[in-house]
Amino acid sequence: MNNFEFKNPTKIIFGKDTIQKLKEEIPANAKVLLLYGGGSIKKNGIYEQVKSALSDVDVVEFGGIPANPEYAKLLEALKVIKQEEITYLLAVGGGSVIDGTKFLSAAAVYKGETPWDILANNIRTETGMPFGTVLTLPATGSEMNSGAVITRDEIKEKLAMGGPGLFPQFSILDPQVIVSIPKRQLANGIADAFTHVLEQYMTYPIGAMLQDRFAESILQTLIKVAPKVLKDPTNYKAASNFMWSCTMALNGLIQKGVPTDWAIHAMGHELTALFGIDHARTLAIITPSHYKYNFDAKKQKLAQYAERVWKIKKGSKNDKAFDAIEKTEKFFQELGIDTKLSDYTDDYEGTAEKIAKRFTDRGWVALGEHKDLSPDKVEKIVKMAY
Known about the structure:
Layout: E1 11-14, H1 22-25, E2 31-35, H2 46-53, E3 58-62, H3 71-83, E4 88-93, H4 95-107, H5 116-120, E5 131-135, E6 147-152, E7 157-162, E8 170-173, H6 183-201, H7 209-231, H8 236-249, H9 263-275, H10 279-293, H11 295-308, H12 317-334, H13 351-362, H14 375-384
Helix pairs in contact: 3-4, 6-7, 6-8, 6-10, 7-8, 9-10, 10-12, 10-14, 11-12, 13-14
């Protein structure tokens, strides 16, 4: 196991009817900017719960943050922060709203020329404007980590940012919120969390026995609860396990002491930037091809994954590893998620070359756990995903 340091300062408030505890977490005399997405919280009762909990708090609202948090829209929110002299941010939404809030947390205190520099130059935020979250869509784990991904549509870019100053001070997780989430978004959330675990697990053995078991248990839980959540979101037992699995998948714990990959996400982000495909679905597009292309480097862990998660006992190590890839792709498909780029667009020719050039231009020439995934290899993987 590798050396590591681990600190996660986010307070989690989990369970039924916990939104009412919101006021207890907001600092006295704070001026709060309430951030949310397309307005679904006003239809499902969450908005009323939040407003009731904050009835004695000075609150300014900003809605309309899109599914891929858009830089131009966030700049509008940044103006509100400056004009209204906001001192605290509250994200009420899923990963996109929370990611957007993290960007605003960083941008509100940034002294540079333009906030885009934070993303373009990968500037770590050591101290941001404080914020908390009320999670409405389990998926990204953004409610308990310090990372975010922001889209800039005008230049078709989707870039990551982060830093220790971007952990939420608290996150409220009430599994009951999933009852109003469309089936498509629930499927996305399951696939997103599943792939988050794979990016931290599907590398090579390093003797991190407990970390492997943590990762495998999250995968097994997601596989077990997925059909129950999709069939009946009011099933609280399934919903609570789904929500906590999504949080645990990317709160930093399972990646400590082990090598990680994240090349799937790097390629997937480009498909979202270029075609507007849902983030989770881009991961489902890239994952099978990535594992097939890097089969030899990953087959030890693929075979372990096959045996422990999918209970594949027969065949050689190669057979088990290949069967695990097929099981993974089938799992995505059973969620209702297509796994080829051509399922989403007819305009896919040239995509691989375009992504490879972008990676070259950015200096992203050594991706993956072995730092050997060069742009020419990325091009081949994306082509395999057509």
